[in-house]
Amino acid sequence: MKHYNYIFTGSGLSALMTVYEMIVSNTMKDKSILLLDVDAKKSNDRTWCFWDDSNRFEEIISKEWENTLFANENFRKQLNIEPYHYKMIQGSDFYEFIFKKISKNKNIHFLQDKVIDFSDLGNHCLVKTEQNSFTCNKVFNSIFNPNVITSQKKYPLLQQHFIGWFIKSKEPVFDENSATFMDFSVRQKGNTRFMYVLPTSKDEALLEYTLFSKDLLSKEEYETEIVLYIKNLGITEYEIVEKEQGNIPMTCFLFWKNNSKNIIHIGSAGGWTKASTGFTFKNVTKKSKQLVTFLATNSDFTKFHKKDKFWFYDLLFIDVLYQNNALGSKLFSNLFKNGNSGIILKFLDEETAWLEDLKVILKCPKIPFIKALIGRLFSM
Q1: Which of 37, 48, 222, 288 could tie 11 with a disulfide, CB 3.0–4.6 Å?
Q2: What is the pLDDT of residue 380?
Q3: What are the structural domain ranges in the chain?
Q4: Strand spans (E) along 263-332
């Protein structure tokens, strides 16, 4: 049975980003590392977008926008997001970029195989796949198990679920210099529903019909709304170039409580997704860097994660939308109509000081959050 220092069960964004940080830190050359995934990571299976004020990953940014648009049924507003730019990375470009880095490091290996079990045996870990068994010192697990959340009720689960179409239209209707961050003018139907539009040229864009809600829709429901939105843009003819779909858990469940000394859960499986927005890429870049720094001085994964004020803010947000899912449009509209967009994005990046927090919080509807706060004070 072959032994590795580190085994990654699952090789999605969080695993690949952590391995990338291990490579650039130049501190893991003496560690044998194995990445396991049933998928070969060759396809363009997803798109990541994030706001950023650095040049990180500049070589694989497929598009960036200086301007973003927020809209609902009553108003449309171009957001000033300085000092940020809104950026997009295609999944296939990210995978190629990371695997090129991996190929230059002989201590890192990738195996296409399905993980069926892993366990901490005290002084080492055992990982079983459909074809093999391995031992290792540490396991980094990014395989999400929904039963962990659905088996409890203390921390509710919303889902950010969506279907997106990359289209090429006959009419040049898109402003390629402006991304539509959220358009709540679509029919809400008792939920938090919005359209997300990322133009790459005057006649090409990704349109994603997105919900923050408890339950998923049928495929036809998402696509019917996309077709209607395209029609309302004045497009009469278009070609669907690619499709994508996703489902991101939005919860403040304490995933890290399931870490052991030698097994850490990362990515969505470890609570690395920003609970209040479902945004993943920026959070993962931060968490992976923190984890690699942690490994240099600590070997007990139960000590890695700590709760902070942003976790509690997100907890109240999820509680509010879980109890009244139709509030989403009002909540986000209150924030972006009169608030400072740059500070709001900084707040969502969990980088604001207390005074900045207050500027954002005061834009939120008061009564639902006060009720959520009281409820949590009696249940904590």
Answers
A1: 37
A2: 64
A3: 2-66+92-151+255-303, 158-250, 309-377
A4: 263-265
Instruction: Name the nearest CA neighbour of 27 among 294, 264, 305, 287.
Output: 294
Contacts for 166 with CB less than 8 Å, ≥ 6 apart: 204, 205, 206, 240, 241, 242, 243, 244
Helix 354-361 vs helix 341-348: crossing angle, to nearest 10: 110
Give the pLDDT confidence score for residue 338 in this predicted structure. Answer: 87
User: 94-121, pLDDT tens digit by residue?
Assistant: 999 999 999 999 999 999 999 999 999 9
Q: Which residues contact 105 (CB under 8 A, 6 or more apart)?
A: 23, 29
Determine the CATH number of domain 2-66+92-151+255-303. Answer: 3.50.50.60
The whole-number average pLDDT for the span 230-259 is 96
Q: How far apart are CA 139 and CA 127, in angstroms?
A: 8
Q: Which CATH architecture has domain 158-250?
A: 2-Layer Sandwich (3.30)
Cβ 210 vs Cβ 196: under 8 Å: yes
